[in-house]
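Blackboard transcription, Thursday session:
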Amino acid sequence: DTEVTQTPKHLVMGMTNKKSLKCEQHMGHRAMYWYKQKAKKPPELMFVYSYEKLSINESVPSRFSPECPNSSLLNLHLHALQPEDSALYLCASSSQWGTGGVLAGELFFGEGSRLTVL
Amino acid sequence: GEDVEQSLFLSVREGDSSVINCTYTDSSSTYLYWYKQEPGAGLQLLTYIFSNMDMKQDQRLTVLLNKKDKHLSLRIADTQTGDSAIYFCAESRTGANNLFFGTGTRLTVIP
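(Written on the board underneath:)
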């Protein structure tokens, strides 16, 4: 099983709503990532969890709140978003977390959750 | 992605070879990757190469790495309409727990 599964595939929410994106992998990977991708642009890193601890936060606004309940699950809680937050949100995972923190080997992506904020 | 550059568009005829190019600037690259993204979908890892290799072949895909010139290419032999997608190169770097993505190349295959 080399899958990273994301739900929901599509989400429409208002600026006052609270919603969550979910990501799951059963490959035993200990590093999990959230990326944001706007149309026709490369993915931009938001957060990295390593061994269930937040290791990177790329200065993401607090209206995005990540959570890693266990080594297989990664959530992204959304609250008071803005229309410019509409994007494809991609989850990824990796098994390779070498010395010095270098990513080595494969980074597997899910299909993404397409978020529209009205 | 400002340190990893790709041309934005490439069109080829079905059955021809496609060559997608990527240049990077950081000399601490450890692995270099090629991802494919179809419309509305996530990123599919196609292949990757360790930075001390200069070539890797996998069926229709050939990756060439010129470390001196910091140039990476992906050749797709016998390109098919199903190969139409955006292709991203990416690199991992010593000390960075992330991938650095290129701007993406949109490949269009003309029947």
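Lecturer's comment: The first strand of chain B starts at residue 4 and ends at 6.
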